[in-house]
Amino acid sequence: MRLQERVAVVTGGASGFGEGIVRRFASEGAYVVIADVNEEAARKLAKEIGGLAVRADISRGADVKALARAALERFGGIDILVNNAGIGHKPQPLDTLTEEEFDRILAINAKSVFLTAREIVPLMKTKKRGAILNIASTGGVSPRPNLTWYNASKGWMITATRAMAVELAPFGIRVNAINPVAGETPLLATFMGEDTPEIRAKFLASIPIGRFSTPQDIAAAACFLCSDEASMITGVALEVDGGRCI
Question: Looking at the predicted structure, is the pLDDT value of residue 183 above 90?
């Protein structure tokens, strides 16, 4: 019960890595707030784990403000924030992505980190304690071709993690990131362009351990980084990638 009675907000928590993190946090004793645009899935999961579901588009300031308010009203505070929500784009030359797609990627993968910090960091400063975890990507460290703008958004997240860690350490707030390799989540097909045995084999060939990551892999790392066991760890971007970035 490493997160006993901690209140954790997980964005994009209704599926994929987010769902894995939500389930693991709940099993470790946390009260979990599931923020997702898929309200039905979030409510179903919240019912299973005894948490709170909040429909939120985390690229919108008003939605993030309402999310923080809902967590405060239900649980009285926020101890952990996991910025997990993210989107990608299909593999394509960097000069062919539309401006609308680019804006959406930056809004979800980058602006959302600013918006959640604006609402939640002040609450953590008051308590002089908190843990923030950003779910970035190996793409931010070792970019794959034809995913340039997704890679860039995750590189932004890694730099933001380090900058936040330095600034917030005096307030007792730790900030870390996880860089997952491609995983068995709804985003996998987007990254591959199409899901065929040949393309899967190509992706797997770049992962020395020889398999995709799972929500359970990411959840285990997330639980550690957000627990007191990692009380001396901040500003780290931990690669959970089966060796891909070596």
Answer: no
3-state secondary structure of 62: helix
What pLDDT digit, counting tens, does each position of 83-136 carry? 999 999 999 999 999 999 999 999 999 999 999 999 999 999 999 999 999 999
CA distance 133 to 237: 9
Q: Which among 158, 75, 72 is positioned nearest to 120, based on CA atoms? A: 72
- Residue in 17, 25, 150, 191 annotated catalytic: 150
Active site residue 31: no
Q: Identify the CA nearest to 188 among candidates 87, 74, 48.
A: 87
Q: Where are the extended beta strands (E) located within 56-141?
A: 80-83, 130-135
Cα–Cα dist 61/83, whole Å: 15
Kindly report the three-state secondary structure assignment for every residue of 205-226: CCCCCCCCECHHHHHHHHHHHH
The SS3 call for residue 178 is strand
* Token pair for 207: 């992962």
Q: Tell me the C-alpha distance between 137 and 178, whole Å.
A: 7
